[in-house]
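Take a careful look at the protein record below. Let me know whether the structure tokens fit the sequence:
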Amino acid sequence: MAIEKWLAVTSLGLFAMFAGEMISVYNFMTDVPETIAFSITFDADPKIFQFISIGAAPAGILAAVPYIMTRQYGSKPIGGLIVAGGVIMLIGMFVSYSLVDKIDPVYITDVVKYSPILFMILSIPVIAVGAYLTKEKKRRPKKEFF
């Protein structure tokens, strides 16, 4: 496999990891154990920023690099991997946003409320870029005689 495919696979994995992390922290906030609730103060904002910095940001960069490398001739497998990453992030953020109503109001902040919406919106360009790569036709390479 070329390096573009490996970058797209890594991007897919990071999108899935980010979605899983967000779902897990939102699920934790829906049912915080009483022993933790009274002994430890839990703030979700730093965790969400950490998940963004180790999951979503590198995944976006790793999705952009194969796009830049293959945009001239297109690639169905690479485009499909990028689309799959965007769909995984969209579904994961939808699940996270559906859990916001069940979260205890003590843990609700602007970051908790609006970050799933932001990443649902950001997953649409990722899907569009991947779809563009699947539609792009391969150009015939120029022959070099010298």
Summary: Residues 6 and 66 are 9 Å apart (CA to CA).
